[in-house]
Amino acid sequence: MNILVTGGAGYIGSHTVVELMNAGHNPIIADDLSNAHYSAVDRIGKITGKVPTFYKVNCACKAQLRHVFSQHKIDAVIHFAAFKAVGESVKKPLEYYRNNLDSTMTLLEVMEEFGCKKLVFSSSATVYGPNNPHPYKEEMPAIQSSSPYGWTKVMNERILTDYCTAHPDFSAVLLRYFNPIGAHESGLLGDDPNGIPNNLMPYIGRVAAGQLEKLTIFGGDYETPDGTCQRDYLHVVDLAVGHLKALEYAAEHNGVEAINLGTGNGISVLELVNAFQKVNGIKLPYVVGPRRDGDLPAFWADATKAKQLLGWEATHTVEDMCRSSWNFAKKGV
Ligand code: UFG
Fold first, then answer.
1. Phi, psi (5° rounding) for residue 7?
2. Whose CA is nearest to atom 8 of ligand 1?
3. Which of 187, 189, 207, 188 minimizes the C-alpha distance to 197?
4. Does residue 230 have its Cβ closer than 6 Å to ligand 1?
5. What beta strand segments (E) does 52-155 contain?
6. Phi (first) and psi of residue 57, to 5 degrees
7. What is the pTM of this model?
8. Sheet arrangement for strand 76-79
């Protein structure tokens, strides 16, 4: 199938493009490179033996998207392209709402124009908000968030749900990711944010590489077994494979379906730090500091639905995640 992958040069997008190519699909990347580098496209080529088709496109620009659809018969779309920094979204709410909502609506309009009816959407566990008990299940109300970034996921899910109601022959799979970490085994693709990382694993990678002095663990007094927050960390390659399965599901079903992609296990910050040190034989300097505003103490996925509907479950261990993250970070790419 010809699959348009918006945001395909980014962290999760690039890993997904590799899995699509390995499965014999023809991914077409549309990315404005606002938070990604073209080098990821070249690296996909090194891994797969073929450089994927790439367009420098802002998905909120209808003319640019139309051009891509006019050049290829697009069978389905995986929509990653979005701003994704939680803290930045609090400071720049309008930019986040404008970019993340406009891009989805413009994409839907252009898909409709060209008769494309299959979409996999990049959503987040953040839509479960602060009030649901974990493990999170898809039938729980997913109508809250704690940041403008998170609200754009809630709103995009709503837009896609309403669109599917109005267009019963359309298919949208809303993939709610938990905490993706890890990197491609080649060490060529991984999470390489601009500036000082906000997320835990890229921060750990920079500390381990000596580029940052030490890790601050945000809070050691939570009501969790070791006092640090627990999350459902999953390997980015497992997540990428989940997109492939979601695509196969969308090809055969109409309507909207929200599906968690997580391992179903909670891991604490301290457990992750210890696993990283052990598996890589590295001493990681860290201190336990105050809590970070907005962090929930603990959450993880109920991953049953993904297994039942998609036949997907995570296969990589925490050790795999830590090993591959360091294999990528140590190259300093
Ligand atoms: N943490 C630290 N020190 C750091 C960075 C993070 O202790 O320097 C801790 C956080 O306090 C948290 C855990 O590591 O307990 C994970 O933090 P991340 O920033 O890596 O991830 P979050 O769980 O905060 O955020 C993730 C995604 C968001 C998504 C959110 C809710 O990055 O996109 O989950 O689903 F919105």
1. 70, 25
2. 200
3. 207
4. no
5. 53-56, 76-79, 118-124
6. -135, 135
7. 0.97
8. 53-56, 26-31, 2-6, 76-79, 118-124, 171-177, 255-261
Please tell me the residue having the least CA distance from ligand 1 atom 18.
199
Q: Is 70 helix (H, G, I), strand (E, B) or coil?
A: helix
pLDDT, one tens digit per residue, over 134-156 is: 999 999 999 988 899 999 999 99
Residue 86: which residues within 8 A CB-CB, separation 6 or more? Answer: 126, 147, 149, 150, 198, 294
Identify any residues that bridge with 218 across adjacent strands, giving them in sequence order.
289
CB of 218 within 6 A of ligand 1: the answer is: yes
How many CA atoms within 13 Å lie on the side-chain side of 217? 22
Q: Are 278 and 271 in contact (CB under 8 A)?
A: no
Helices and strands counted in the chain (H then E) = 11, 13
How far apart are the C-alpha atoms of 246 and 240, rounded to whole Å? Answer: 10
Atom of ligand 1 nearest to the CA of 289: 7
Angle, helices 39-48 vs 11-22, to 10°: value is 30
Q: Is the CB of 150 under 6 A from ligand 1?
A: yes
Whether residue 149 lies in the annotated active site: yes
Distance CA 134, CA 124 (A): 15
How far is residue 224 from each of residues 20, 161, 181, 232, 298, measured CA to CA in Å?
38, 35, 21, 14, 7
Separation CA 34–CA 30 (nearest Å): 12
pLDDT tens digits, 215-274? 999 999 999 999 999 999 999 999 999 999 999 999 999 999 999 999 999 999 999 999
Does the Cβ of 132 fall within 6 Å of ligand 1? no
- φ, ψ for residue 124, nearest 5 deg: -150, 155
Q: 3-state DSSP: the chain helix, strand, coil percent, rounded to 5?
A: 40, 20, 40
